[in-house]
């Protein structure tokens, strides 16, 4: 009887350890994929800004006009969360992601589609955004 009780305790301990290790692996995997996505987004933003620097003055003029339209559209839409926008010297416009914002909210606040936002920033699928992250919107 004592041997049986010891076996049961040992089996229970093994199962708990296996479950604990499984949770740790999932957490590490999630953290790694999150940091990879953030790094990819930052490198895409840098690449986008380099492309914008080599664009012509006509594109800059067009971008400036589009930016003013986007700001008007952004001010017209009301939202419980806000994001700030900045404009670079090359005519590109960047938005800072606010707390709790997703791709849709950033896109709507800046007058562009979600697909265009993904394209400008090299994002795929349902990318996870972090508060304070800068995304190109023009």
Describe this protein with a few key phrases.
mainly alpha, 138 residues, rod-shaped, 63% helix, single chain, 3 strands, 4 helices, three-stranded antiparallel β-sheet
Give a short summary of the structure.
With 138 residues, the chain is mostly helical. The protein has helices spanning 2-53, 57-76, 103-109, 114-121, and strands at residues 84-87, 93-96, 134-136.
Describe the protein.
By secondary structure, this protein is mainly alpha-helical. It has four helices and three strands. The protein has a three-stranded antiparallel beta sheet. Helix 3 packs across helix 4. It starts with a helix and ends with a strand.
Q: Structural class, please?
A: mainly alpha
Number of helices: 4
What share of the residues lie within helices? 55-70%
How many DSSP-defined strands?
3
Model regions low in confidence, pLDDT < 50 over at least 5 residues: 53-81
Strand-residue proportion: 5-15%
Spatial order of the strands in the main sheet? Answer: 1-2-3
> Which whole number gives the mean pLDDT?
74
Outline type = rod-shaped
Topology order in helix (H) and strand (E) letters: HHEEHHE
Describe the biggest sheet?
Answer: 3 strands, antiparallel
Whole-Å distance between the termini? 74 Å
| Alpha-carbon Rg, integer | 23 Å
């Amino acid at each position: 009887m004592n041997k049986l009780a010891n076996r049961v305790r040992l089996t229970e301990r093994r199962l708990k350890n296996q479950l604990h290790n499984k949770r740790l692996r999932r957490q590490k995997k999630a953290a790694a994929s999150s940091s990879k996505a953030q790094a990819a987004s930052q490198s895409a933003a840098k690449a986008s800004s380099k492309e914008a620097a080599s664009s012509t003055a006509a594109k800059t003029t067009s971008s400036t006009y589009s930016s003013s339209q986007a700001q008007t559209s952004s001010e017209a839409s009301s939202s419980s969360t806000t994001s700030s926008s900045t404009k670079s010297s090359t005519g590109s416009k960047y938005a800072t992601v606010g707390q709790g914002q997703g791709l849709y909210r950033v896109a709507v606040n800046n007058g562009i589609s979600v697909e265009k936002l993904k394209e400008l920033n090299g994002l795929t699928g349902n990318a996870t955004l972090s508060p304070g992250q800068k995304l190109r919107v023009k």
